[in-house]
# Entry
Amino acid sequence: MYKLSDFKDLNEECGVFAITGVEDAAHLVYLGLYALQHRGQEAFGMCATAVQEGESWVKATKDFGLVADGMSSAKLSQLQGSTCLGHVRYSTQGGRLSENIQPFVFRLPQLGQIAMAHNGNLTNALELREQLERAGSVFTSTSDSEVFIHLLARSNAQSLGDKIAGLMYQVKGAYALCFAAGDHLYAVRDPYGFRPLVIGQLDGKSVIASETCALDLIGAETVREVYPGEMICMGPDGQFDSTFPMGRDTRPAFCAFESIYFARPDSQRNGESFYQVRFRIGQRLACDFLPEDADTVVPVPDSGVPMAMGFAHEAGLPMELGLVRNHYVGRTFIEPGQMNRDFKVKLKLSPVQSVLNGKSVVLIDDSVVRGTTCMRIVRMIREAGAKKIHLRIGSPPITHPCHYGVATPSKKDLLAANLSVDEIARRLEVDSLQYISQPGLRLALGDQTQQGFCYACFDGDYREYIEKKAYQEQ
Ligand code: SF4
# Structure
């Protein structure tokens, strides 16, 4: 019997990019993954596909680390094919196995080799894996995403499209999924649309990406998002077919944290950038929780910057860079003994004493999860001479873990699940603490009727009620 902890490599935040019908498909996918690197830095993979003697074949390259470090022109030139699919993986706790690097490549009778890339987490992966193993399937990775492949292999449907449509009835949870087979791409989003997936066009050819920033980099036009529950089949001629294998009755639940923190600020959704959304979150915080004695607004970089700009704009205060981020931390070799938590934060962020000394600071951050990093930042600002620290947070208190693809700890390690706001303020050693309210967040997201977003980590309302029952026990 599997436990959740047995899944060392849940497929957390990831990025997907694919194109079909172009000669230099691999080169464009390389650029697309480069733009999506913020969605995963643990590993990347690229698969070029084409049709040969009536069957699909795949050429793949995969590696740990960043796309720019692991790819070379020699490797790119081997990825010949007019269709290419790429994936970047986020660093997760547990084993770093090369078998878990996507896209996965597998073979189906009569169809040939197929590549698959997944962003999101399946909430019934454990049960499905157990059932499949009892029925004889042999898994080669510890990733929840491999379940898709074994389900496809057991499908009696004739076409790949019908097999994928059948999958949607069997899996639960979050999936923005892409398959490359020969000169076709299939893109699927779960009925709730937890994770993003957008359609683009480049010179009349079809592109799929997790975010629009990747389309922008290659000069592709954003067409629209893949709708929740939709399956898109794209051919090399740039045309695509749309179906909704499970109908369209589900209330969408786009991850609020994509808007708050995870997506790149220049990416767009529904015609506006995530930068604009974050700016409004900051404005909302200033409207609701402006401290009387505030001198200056300081973001925790980089994600707190648009919110701090919104706060400062609304409050009529200056926004200053009181913390400077070192962007090269990941490449620094440090003796393990030096790597205590204080030092890790110091490596990443430095206070600017001339900005902070003697000031009453409004410190803006996007979220507080465990609170350990936040506490160290607060101490750092205090040591730099800040007179007061008023902490304002651009998300409501995180009281529940995410099971849809964002790496959050279990409930016992979530600060807000165990302490009141006043207790958290004391723990973090700030003079005042306020989180944006859930109605305030909905206003900032343009979701007044609570129809379109998932807020489960703030209120425990997991859209799939079965999971809700199961998760309450964790
Ligand atoms: S639970 Fe939170 S992090 Fe997870 S999908 Fe919902 S809003 Fe996003």
About this structure: The radius of gyration is 23 Å. The chain has two domains: 4-250, 273-472.
